[in-house]
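User: Please write out a complete single-protein record containing the residue sequence and its fold in token form, without commentary.

AI:
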Amino acid sequence: MDGIVTVLKPPGMTSSNVVYDVRKIFSEKRAGHLGTLDPAAAGVLPVCLGRATRLFDILVDKDKEYVFETSFGIQTDTQDAYGAITARDQCVIDRNSLERVLPEFIGEQMQTASIYSALKVDGKKMYDLARAGKAVEPKTREISVSELELLEQTGENRFLLRAVCSRGTYIRSLCESIANRLDTVAYVPFLLRSRSGPFTLMQAKTIAELCDAAAEDALSSVVTSCEDAMFFLPELRLEKERAVPTKNGLDTHVRGVSDGIVRAYAGNEFLGIGSIQQEKFRLTIHLYG
């Protein structure tokens, strides 16, 4: 089966284990997720199946949306509720103070990821190394936050926020930076990825629901096709007779069309993803049946 299944990952489960379960349910060896969720986090984890794994480089760079709670006044070594408390602060943060500083964290910025993140060092996840007591050098990289808003106050020093950000953004590190700006400490007791690129929480299925769909022979109903997943790309329609030459790797002249990546058809047949350069089209990702 070719396509993308949107899984609702529970807290406490690794992204790798989700992929393992999906492989078994769909009896598909070719499977991979579109961006790790740390074990403590929950939410949307799209898993590509079959030919859809060829779309990884396009889909993995799409922005992500998170809903999360931050609790000020306590710091843990993992920046979440699973870690040991390393600092306490009596400072009380009010809603107005928090709202005033949030705009400072919108835009491009450098971020240092937690050593308990899922980034890899020599092929091993940082959080596995850190929990094993091994020295880990934190990694710094550029991220971008396009939206950051306070949704509500959930208790004293506790707030629910929403962020839309680039691939590679660590929400726990973002919350720590916000706390530093407010001269206090914080940790993240709740973290939910509500969207990953075009894949949303509304369409996400639990592993149990996927098992039920398999038992009812209805797995196709929970899979987004490669064609539908690429809806955000411009469409290019070639003449029907260009199907075979295009599949064989030959260029097609397309006059008056701008350079870029497109979703390509020959007649009504979906071929896959291709690129246009100087009015020449070539199919680069073959997705036809």
Observations:
- The chain has three domains: 3-62+198-228, 64-196, 233-286.
